[in-house]
Amino acid sequence: MKAIVQHEYGNANVLLYSDVEMPTIGEGECLIQVAYASVNYADIKARNGDKGKGNFPLILGLDMAGTIVEAGTDSRFSVGDRVIAFPKEGSYAQYVVANEQLIFKIPDSLSFERAAAIPTVSILSYLLLHEIGQIRKTDTIVIHSAAGGVGSMLIQLSKLFGVQRVIGTVGNLEKADYVKGLGADIVCTYETFVEQVFIHTNDKGANIIFDSVAGEVTGKSLQCLALFGTLVQFGNSSGKVGTIKTSDVHSSCRNIKGFSLGTTRKHDPARIKPIAEKVIQLFDANQVSLPIAKVFELSEAAAAHQLIESRSYKGKVLLKVEE
């Protein structure tokens, strides 16, 4: 089968379109033919070696949508089932193996292209909003990197729930119309969001801030986080560590919560199933949808990575794998 393989860490040119052996399933696993794989910023960090060391040759990719082609005798899945999944190895391949706990059926009415946007960014966003951030309709929330995949979903899901005020931050105001179109009430840059938060909250600050950037953005977020507010930290796309002091939290009664979908998949996969089912229903009912920035062929994975790194896209980047 064909897959995108890398034999060393480096820039997008280390991603090679190659022939590899077909994976085989074990107990409690299924073999899935990939229709679309999504490209996430985490893939860039993994390609560079910033997410810990992997074993070469390495296949990247966190998630995919496709069709079951082999299942165990006692499996709850059948050949032909349409699914989304988090595979054991990378998803940049024609076929992948996944643990049944991390495979979720999708209805025939939901296209593979739309479904491929669900696993990482949409499930993560729902968890962040409702379990980690525990948003309320009366909240003012800040969503950093609002034009990215997770940001796009956080905005839609928060407005669907009825959150009063959503402030989105972007690196470039050329993305402002896109972010407002998703439902954000205010869009500003990382340089101005602290001031804008105070203006729109009568100097009280934001109730919840979702931070996947870290670095200086984390410190600025704490400057405008309200009393009893929550900073949800779930990434560091800036590549820099954010600094948090104990004095930032105890006297102000504020909370700092960290979350990783990867850690949850590894250590508590059962937690994901009910969330996946809810999100799939929302997509199928057209209550939310993730705009697709661009679809690349599997062989064009390097170009997809270059687009992600340019940060000049809006929404989700996919790899089309099915023949």
Automatic annotation (TrEMBL):
<dbReference type="Pfam" id="PF08240">
    <property type="entry name" value="ADH_N"/>
</dbReference>
<dbReference type="InterPro" id="IPR036291">
    <property type="entry name" value="NAD(P)-bd_dom_sf"/>
</dbReference>
<dbReference type="InterPro" id="IPR011032">
    <property type="entry name" value="GroES-like_sf"/>
</dbReference>
<dbReference type="Pfam" id="PF00107">
    <property type="entry name" value="ADH_zinc_N"/>
</dbReference>
<feature type="domain" description="Enoyl reductase (ER)">
    <location>
        <begin position="10"/>
        <end position="319"/>
    </location>
</feature>
<protein>
    <submittedName>
        <fullName>Zinc-binding alcohol dehydrogenase family protein</fullName>
    </submittedName>
</protein>
<dbReference type="InterPro" id="IPR013154">
    <property type="entry name" value="ADH-like_N"/>
</dbReference>
<dbReference type="InterPro" id="IPR020843">
    <property type="entry name" value="ER"/>
</dbReference>
<dbReference type="InterPro" id="IPR013149">
    <property type="entry name" value="ADH-like_C"/>
</dbReference>
<keyword id="KW-0521">NADP</keyword>
<keyword id="KW-0560">Oxidoreductase</keyword>
